[in-house]
Amino acid sequence: DGSATVPLHLKVAASLGPGAILWAVAALALSVGTPSSPSAPFYSDIVEEEQVRLQESLDAEAPVEKTPSLEEQDKREQTMRACIAYVLERAFTVAAIEAASSMILETSFGWQPERIGLIVGASCASSGLLMFFILLGRRLELFEDGLVLAVTAPIGALSSLLFVGANRTSAWFILVADVILTASAFSANGVTDGFANAAARQGTLYSLENYTTVKTVLLCMGRVAAPPVARAMIHSFGWNAYAAMQLAVTICGAGTAFKIFTLMRPSETNALRQRCFGWKEVDN
Description:
The chain is an all-alpha fold. It is 78% helix and 0% strand.
């Protein structure tokens, strides 16, 4: 009869749909790139050429040094272990966010499940948009990967402070913290994966295949363990206990990220310390 009205959350979801599609297409185009001309080589040809070039480079360097020094090998192993630790920290943090935020929005603010699903989904999309701009800056060479790691991990830890007392103030503090923390964790994890690829050594315990396997297992473990732990923490000890747990985990994650940064970018680390604290470490 024309008197029925469309619910507000469905209108908002419909309005977000085209934007989400455009964002996905733009991110895909930025990540993959486009050929410079119709005669540009296919991706498989480029990969094959890069593999040949890499093999030639390795063959040329082999007579000089077949195996890394003990110091270099220890540095690689430390990097791999730190990257593996950050994978677990990131997986736990992000999975806990989804479960805890949904719970507190329903119990403390009285939001309906439909609204919670829409808003939490929108916050995830906002995190993706923020990660897109970080990726764009890296692609345009506005900043290097090491700087992304050194900045995003501490920012994620600081954003978790917005959780403290947010259950009695505003739900938007929780959602803003969710967006910043998720984007920071994923961006930093992308850089640590790149450093792990660089530090991996084939034919050893710290090979790329082993790293990928362990990473997959830890991601699953983090996503399985985090939701019940977060909800049990809120139910038994309150929201601020969960906030303290997230703060502790993200601080540990920031420390792990900075450890990776110091191992892989020692010169940049010294420059950053000198700029921030007025002192630097002398390389041995």
